[in-house]
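Hi there, hope your week has been kind to you so far. Please have a think about how the structure follows from the sequence. I've dropped the whole record in just underneath, so have a look:

_____
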Amino acid sequence: MKVFIFPYNSLILYDLVERCGHKPLASMQELTRRMHRGTAAPPPYHIDFDDLQSSLESCSVDVPSGVRGRQAFLAPLVKEAEAAIFITDPEYAFGVSGCARANELVWHQVVEKGIPTLTVRYPRNYEQAERLVASVTRFLKQVESAGAENSS
């Protein structure tokens, strides 16, 4: 199952989703795919005119350029996602959460898509971290079993 993660560059969530046997969808994965295809613009841009045009499918032309730039990477991941996990109130080092407007737009796109979503708070101590891991693992198992029931 393809799982969109937020923060979208969180190595912790990426690893956890992958260990549970699913495919995490993250910004670094999209950038890697573009680099291998040879379609990524040189740093610091990483996006080109076609990316900006395609981002207009998910946001209007008058939104700030940072939102459109993030949408160039994130909208394709949301389209591909079969489930999503959001960590709210993350610490700075957990994963760059980017611009608030882009994050709201991504959240709206996920909700609008109607895929199963788990939202949990960033853990502040060991016990909360254990609960986070248990919640994510339980969610992924439930979504996987629901998907297996629907496909049979």
Observations:
- The chain has a mean pLDDT of 83.
